[in-house]
Write a structure and sequence with these properties.
The complex is a heterodimer. By secondary structure, chain A is of the alpha/beta class. Chain A is built from ten helices and ten strands. In chain A, the strands form two sheets. Chain A has a six-stranded mixed β-sheet, with helices on both faces. In chain A, a hairpin with a 2-residue loop joins strand 9 (210-215) and strand 10. By secondary structure, chain B is of the alpha+beta class. Chain B has eleven helices and ten strands. Chain B has helices spanning 2-21, 23-61, 87-96, 131-135, 160-168, 240-254, 265-308, 310-318, 323-360, 368-395, 398-402, and strands spanning 65-70, 100-115, 118-128, 140-143, 155-158, 178-181, 184-192, 211-214, 227-234, 260-264. Chain B has a six-stranded mixed barrel with strand order 2-3-8-5-7-6. In chain B, strand 2 (100-115) and strand 3 form a beta hairpin. The two termini of chain B are 37 Å apart. The chains are: A alpha/beta, B alpha+beta. The A-B interface holds A 45, 49, 52, 54-55, 74-75, 78-79, 81-83, 87, 89, 91, 93, 95, 97, 106-107, 109-115, 154, 158 and B 2-7, 9-10, 17-18, 21, 311-312, 315-323, 325, 398-399, 402-403, 405.
């Protein structure tokens, strides 16, 4: 469903050019749960922005659902994000003025769905994540774990093919983090939604069927050995270097 | 299409919600626009009211009136007195020119009026015919006006102010009393009601402070006994330009040397209205300055709002909002703000106008033009001053907005 081929991304900082990504290759299949780890500043978020169609690679091809997105205009990218990608952020990024229900409605609003339909679906997904009792609460009336549940509901309400989670447990304590992670894996099992998790927490990464690391601006994938992760990920496949893409296969790290 | 509409609806709800929650900012923006719109309303309304006021002056006298007089620019022929309007011609004007209903010639002079040895006024002596009262809408409170049968009689009709002065001087029944005009004694045959003056005409009647005498007698008391003006009224349904042309040709036949100036009230009104329109535009421009200041306030508020909501904008963009969705959200917000300010401004402006009218004694009227222009200007100001902030919001980089806490 997603393939990145030789993605480069550099930023101009005055006279300097910072090379953040130097040839990332990644092949994600529908239903995969992939973790991407790396130290801060390694380009995790840049990669997530490119996958999330918020940023464009300097060079390289990004094929999403069989469609090369590099040539698409802003409106087309917005529509793709709206229909096919759900975002979960470290700091939740709920709109503070809106209630949980209104926050969850947003993706459907931008899709142009009817109000009654929007509200019905938002309620259903809030109930699924266990927030059915608090749909009229505002973010400041919710705990961190509850906010993240609302954020996950918002990411899923439009039934996207891909869920992008950037440090989804980074702002949560250990117990709540585990619950949030369990919820994500459950949803993967239940709905087959592909999940890409960016994290620096090895415990989180170890629950994912596929684990990759960013090193020197390139993506390196290791096979998961954690049996817990194997149970959670539904379309369990052995991840071989060849799966990642031709670029990765040529590198000695793999 | 349906997507655009439902996003628009959601944006409108969102905008009102956001305005309700940023109370102080909203209030400040409202006040700015309110003052701007209300000053436009006051200025335009006052212009309209002044116009109506001037029109009313004409309507009291009728807009079918015209003044016929010797041109002030007429060259004086060598060794001869300049040609003047002959009384016989002035009297024949109405019967012989079909487009003229009435014509009232006037001989005018100045003098002091005395009664029983006391001065009762110092004003205009007017030699007139019977038609002068009806042409100028004068009415008597006692007695009668000058009649065409009063030829060479030393009879007079006095204005309301002279009558008041005589009463103060001890006169009881005014009709029948003697008033001394210059050196000549006149018997009062009538007393006029108080008359309103039309200052918009170049010739004033000045009835209240005048003594009217038969035009045939006026030569005895006026230093320059020539017809100063003929005030004429055209027939209903006759275009004023036709009537003017008829009068001109009537005099050309009878007095070819006479250089006439004919001023129709309709021409004066048209000229006055042009002046008033310019005046209204000028006042509107003054009001617009206040509005621009208010609009800049809105722009500032919207820019602050956009800056404060960078993260919100970025989140919306990540969730699939297009640039124009963001732009319309902020544009709707500024339009709602200015339109609400516009409604308040119209109310405030009308209240202030009403107050000024009470103070000046003008007749208050709600000018539909000013209300409509106030509201549409407010909406336009929202679009105009909200455009740049909304555009800026739509161009924000979502990545930058999502970073940092």
């Amino acid at each position: 469903m997603l393939s990145l081929v030789d993605i480069h991304r550099s930023y101009r900082l005055g006279p300097l050019t910072a090379q953040v990504l130097r040839g990332v290759d990644l092949e994600v299949r529908a239903g995969d749960v992939v973790s991407i780890m790396g130290p801060s500043g390694s380009g995790k978020t840049t990669l997530m922005n490119i996958i999330g169609l918020l940023d464009r690679p300097t060079t390289g091809a990004c094929v999403f659902e069989g469609r090369d997105v590099s040539g698409l205009g802003d409106d087309a990218l917005s529509a793709l994000r709206n229909r096919h990608i759900g975002f979960v952020f470290q700091s939740f990024h709920l709109l503070p003025r809106l209630t949980a229900l209104e926050n969850v409605c947003l993706p459907l609003v931008y899709r142009g769905a009817r109000r009654a339909e929007t509200a019905r679906r938002a309620r259903a997904v809030l109930e699924r994540v266990g927030m059915g009792e608090r749909i009229h609460h505002r973010p400041d009336q919710l705990s961190g774990g509850q906010k993240q549940r609302v954020a996950i509901a918002r990411a899923l309400v439009g039934e996207p093919a891909l869920l992008l989670a950037d440090e989804p447990t980074g702002a949560l304590d250990a117990d709540t983090a585990r619950e949030a992670m369990d919820l994500l894996l459950e949803l993967n099992a239940e709905r087959g939604v592909t999940i890409l998790i960016i994290t620096h927490d090895p415990a989180i990464a170890s629950q994912c069927a596929r684990q990759a690391r960013i090193r020197d601006g390139r993506l390196v994938e290791a096979t998961a050995h954690d049996p817990g992760a194997a149970d959670a990920a539904v379309p369990r496949r052995p991840s071989l270097p060849g799966d990642i893409g031709k670029g990765a296969a040529a590198r000695p790290h793999a | 299409m349906s997507r655009a509409l439902s996003v628009l609806g959601a944006n409108a709800r969102e905008a009102t919600d956001s305005l309700r929650k940023a109370k102080l900012r909203t209030a400040l923006g409202l006040v700015g626009i309110m003052i701007g719109i209300s000053s436009v309303i006051v200025m335009v309304s006052l212009g309209e009211i002044a116009k109506a006021q001037a029109r009313k002056q004409f309507e009291a006298l009728g807009t079918d009136i015209m003044l016929v007089r010797k041109s002030p620019h007429a060259p004086t022929p060598q060794g001869r007195r300049p040609a003047t309007i002959a009384l016989s011609d002035a009297i024949r004007l109405a019967p012989e020119v079909p487009s003229i209903v009435e014509a009232a010639p006037r001989v005018s002079g100045h003098g002091a009026f005395r009664h029983a040895g006391r001065e009762v006024g110092d004003g205009r002596i007017q030699g007139v015919t019977a038609s002068f009262a009806s042409v100028n809408r004068l009415s008597v409170q006692a007695g009668r006006f000058i009649s065409d049968l009063d030829v060479d009689r030393y009879w007079c009709v006095i204005g309301a102010d002279i009558a008041d002065a005589m009463r103060l001087a001890g006169a009881r029944r005014l009709v029948g009393e003697i008033v001394e005009v210059g050196e000549v004694l006149f018997t009062i045959v009538g007393v006029l009601n108080d008359a309103t003056e039309n200052y918009a005409l170049p010739v004033q009647v000045g009835a209240n402070g005048s003594v009217f005498v038969p035009i045939t007698t006026s030569g005895r008391v006026v230093s320059e006994p020539e017809i100063e003006v003929v005030i004429a009224r055209s027939r209903a349904g006759v275009h004023h330009e036709t009537a003017v042309a008829d009068v001109r040709s009537f005099f050309r036949d009878r007095a070819p040397d006479l250089d006439l100036e004919i001023i129709a009230a309709k021409d004066l009104i048209a000229r006055l209205e042009t002046q008033m329109r310019n005046y209204t535009l000028l006042l509107g421009a003054v009001g617009s300055i206040a509005l621009i200041v208010g609009g800049i306030g809105i722009m500032n508020i919207m820019l602050v709002s956009v800056a404060e909501r960078r993260r919100e904008i970025a989140i919306r963009r990540a969730l699939g909002a297009r640039r124009r969705d963001i732009q319309s959200q902020f544009l709707i917000e500024s339009v709602i703000l200015t339109t609400a300010g516009g409604v308040l401004g119209v109310l405030l402006g009308l209240a202030v106008t009403w107050g000024i009218c009470r103070f000046t004694g003008w007749e208050f009227l709600v000018s539909g033009l000013s209300v409509a222009s106030g509201l549409s200007t407010a909406t336009a100001a929202g679009l105009f001053f909200g455009f740049q902030p909304a555009r800026q919001a739509s161009r924000l980089d979502p990545i930058a907005g999502l970073q940092g806490d």
